[in-house]
Amino acid sequence: MKGRVFKSTGSWYTVKVDGKYIECRLRGKMRLDDEKVTNPVTVGDWVGITMDNEKEGIIYEVLPRENYIIRKSTRKKKHSHRLAANIDQAILIVTLVAPRTSLGFIDRFLVTCESFRIPAILAFNKADLLDEAGLNSYKELKFDYEELGYQTLLISAETNQGIELLKEKLTGKTSLFAGHSGVGKSTLLNLLSPKITQRVSEISESVGKGVHTTTFAEMFEVWNNTYVIDTPGIKELGLWNIGDEELCHYFPEMRKYIGACRFHNCTHIHEPGCAFRDAMEQGKIAPFRYENYLSMLADDDNRR
Ligand SMILES: Nc1nc2c(ncn2[C@@H]2O[C@H](COP(=O)(O)OP(=O)(O)O)[C@@H](O)[C@H]2O)c(=O)[nH]1
Ligand SMILES: [Mg+2]
Ligand SMILES: [Zn+2]
């Protein structure tokens, strides 16, 4: 039988087969397949299963993946973790207040999506909390990111602002919801579908940061043929296996300057005649994007 993995909690996997959810374990041999990845089977995977007894199944194979998204493992050094597989798009839920998502985090996430060729949408949640200055900084970011080809949405799970548009973007697709904890991923999911009851965290007033409530990624059929994967809050996103020369390929605004520097081995950090720096000085590359690029370059440890 073939089915799709909706949830994984370490040793157990919930697989949906013909409309029914079956708890499955992995066939012993499968665990050894790829030593560098901490999870051989991930949410969104299509798998082959056999029944072990009346109730429980065994996953014996993973069908070829259309795509997947990987991050550096937070638990095991030199290992990576597959966040999800077979997704049509990633929705990065960010907030400018309560908590504030850094631009560095946004850009790391976008680079990751680019490297796996997964379209990304930025959804700025908690619009209801933005004052005039907050709204202005949203507008600036919207301008900058849309110029790079990323859609941005301004939404609020509190007032329903922008939710219809978000629903339109989700319909008929499998989407990954990613973002720091406390930005409202679970609240949004509950809002999208009345049958979902994900636990929502209280913002702890003192630090203005959410506490972890979602521990494992889980996929939901929010309505017919429309799937959303809720992920545990991501604190820091370690880029996986992206080389120095490769990094600029994942900045859409930098691609056209590749090869245009005076020195063919330009590192784009300090050399004269660097096309990237020139473009930035001419206002063609946003300074914050170039800075985030440099910081990712410097952060070797985050990429290997
Ligand atoms: N003011 C406001 N609060 C929100 C909004 N969306 C979520 N919250 C609150 O933010 C906190 C964290 O939400 P939660 O869904 O658990 O975040 P998650 O960690 O990303 O899943 C909860 O107290 C929610 O009630 C919003 O649009 N506006
Ligand atoms: Mg949550
Ligand atoms: Zn250069």
Order of helices and strands: EEEEEEEEHEHEHEHEEHHH
Query: Outline, from the CA principal axes?
Result: globular
The Rg value, from CA coordinates, equals 20 Å
The main sheet orders its strands as 10-9-8-11-13-12
**CATH fold-level label of the largest domain:** Rossmann fold
Task: Report the total helices.
Answer: 7
Q: How far apart are the termini?
A: 37 Å
What's the average pLDDT? 90
What CATH architecture of the largest domain would you give? 3-Layer(aba) Sandwich
The chain-level structural class is alpha/beta
How many separate domains?
A: 3
Largest beta sheet, briefly?
6 strands, mixed
CATH superfamily of the largest domain: P-loop containing nucleotide triphosphate hydrolases
The proportion of strand residues reads 15-25%
Note poorly predicted spans: 204-213
The hetero compounds bound to this protein are:
guanosine-5'-diphosphate, magnesium ion, zinc ion
CATH level-1 class of the largest domain: Alpha Beta
Helical content band: 10-25%
Strand element count: 13
